[in-house]
Design a protein that fits this description.
The structure is a single chain. The chain is mainly α and 250 residues long. The longest helix has 26 residues, at 36-61. The chain has helices at 7-11, 21-33, 36-61, 63-71, 78-89, 92-108, 113-124, 141-159, 164-171, 176-183, 187-200, 202-222, 227-230, 233-245, and strands spanning 2-5, 246-249. It contains 14 helices and two strands; from the N terminus they run βααααααααααααααβ. It has a domain at 21-56 and 112-122 and 137-242. Helix 3 (36-61) runs antiparallel to helix 6 (92-108), helix 4 packs antiparallel against helix 5 and helix 8 (141-159) runs antiparallel to helix 9. The chain has a two-stranded antiparallel sheet with strand order 1-2. The protein is globular.
């Protein structure tokens, strides 16, 4: 199957009616609700690996202990606390700790691609298997997705400091991974199509980002363990938007 960007239809003077936000959101929650077991499996693996590396690195570099020691200076004022925190952040141990955690985060990224496989198999009426979660690690594509995420992560790490630029970066890259996965597009091609999609569906994308981020973390805030189910919700929202913005043709 080949996917063509919805912009092509406009260029051909065909003006399809855009599905409303309610349809996009209901579709996203449908995919999420039908795959709760896989949401839980994803979160257990994701946080299990992250926490294992975190405690390993803490035992090796003592960063968590350093944070606790630094927190004691908070009662002496913001300036004193900030100065002590900067000392901790500038140490070699913290730099090594950061590299370990960043590397782990990058390694785990292809796990998200598994949900695109799962949702597509749901659309096709095919049987879903646990192995579908690991499709992002198959063959050379693993290095392709890792390469993309390294590129994405470094720009996001700087842009998120301004919040607004971070949201902009997320908006213009949210369809890059599914386009690479389904359409075999390059990063540059995907970015170009993603930008066109943002221009056409700006309001829908903006609202969906806000809903996805809120719902993604609300499980931790309200029920804590419920966050294990809501944390991967972002993937369902991206896929739902992707299906609306891109049409499938044989």
């Amino acid at each position: 199957m080949m996917f063509t960007f919805a912009q092509n239809f406009f260029m051909e003077n065909k003006y399809p009616q855009k599905p409303g936000l309610d349809f996009i959101l209901k579709q996203a929650f449908f995919y999420w609700n039908k795959t709760l077991v896989f949401q839980l499996m994803f979160s257990i693996m994701y946080f299990g690996i992250m926490m294992t590396i975190l405690f390993f690195c803490d035992a090796k570099y003592g960063i968590l202990t350093g944070y606790l020691e630094t927190a004691k200076y908070a009662k002496e004022g913001v300036q004193v606390y900030t100065a002590e925190l900067q000392k901790l952040l500038s140490t070699e141990n913290f730099q090594n700790f950061s590299l370990w955690m960043m590397g782990t985060n990058i390694f785990l990224y292809p796990l998200n691609l598994g949900f695109y496989q799962i949702y597509r198999k749901m659309d096709l009426g095919e049987k879903i298997e646990l192995g579908d979660l690991f499709v992002g690690y198959n063959g050379l594509n693993f290095f392709r997705y890792i390469g993309y995420y390294i590129f994405w992560y470094f720009i996001f790490a700087y842009s998120i400091q301004t919040i607004i630029l971070g949201v902009v970066w997320v908006s213009i890259t949210m369809f890059v991974a599914p386009m690479m996965f389904f359409m075999n597009k390059s990063i540059l091609e995907s970015l170009s199509l993603n930008f066109k999609a943002l221009r056409m569906y700006f309001l829908e994308i903006l609202v969906c980002i806000m809903v996805a981020v809120l719902f993604k973390y609300i499980g931790f805030a309200l029920f804590f363990i419920g966050g294990l189910f809501t944390f991967p919700f972002w993937n369902a929202m991206i896929y739902s938007l992707y299906k609306v913005i891109f049409s499938e043709k044989n």
